[in-house]
């Protein structure tokens, strides 16, 4: 079997879980995952967990950035309106 020629333990449940998780990724994330884990010598599940954690951190950072930027814009708009309304 072709998979047995790889360095992955195809009898491990990790292999199945990683495959199922990867199928749920959007196309861009799947492409990133394939680039991220290719040629790594670590357990696939550990690599997937790390990949998902890094992605989650990036999303949280981006959301915080947008929230702060949105709040600054709203605050700036209020300040700009205040002198006119007085």
Explain briefly what this protein structure is.
This protein has 86 residues and is mostly helical. Helices cover 76% and strands 0% of the residues. The protein is built from three helices and no strands.
Describe this structure in words.
- With 86 residues, this protein is an all-alpha fold.
- The N and C termini lie far apart (78 Å).
- The chain has helices at residues 13-24, 27-37, 44-85.
- It has one domain.
- 76% of the residues lie in helices and 0% in strands.
N-to-C span? 78 Å
Indicate the low-confidence ranges by residue numbers: none
Q: How many beta-strand elements?
A: 0
Whole-number count of domains: 1
* Rg from alpha-carbon coordinates: 22 Å
Helix content: over 70%
The coarse silhouette is: elongated
Helix/sheet category = mainly alpha
**Helical segment count:** 3
The main sheet comes to:
none
Beta content comes to under 5%
Average pLDDT metric: 76
Topology as H/E string? HHH
Q: What are the defining features of this structure?
A:
86 residues, mainly alpha, 3 helices, 76% helix, 0% strand
List the helices and strands and how they pair.
Layout: H1 13-24, H2 27-37, H3 44-85
């Amino acid at each position: 079997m072709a998979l047995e020629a790889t360095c992955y333990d195809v009898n491990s449940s990790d292999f199945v879980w990683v495959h199922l998780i990867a199928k749920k990724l959007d196309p861009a994330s799947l492409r990133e995952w394939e680039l991220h884990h290719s040629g790594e010598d670590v357990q696939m599940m550990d690599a997937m967990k790390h990949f998902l954690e890094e992605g989650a951190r990036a999303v949280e950072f981006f959301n915080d950035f947008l929230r702060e930027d949105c709040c600054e814009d709203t605050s700036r708009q209020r300040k700009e309106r205040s002198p006119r309304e007085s």
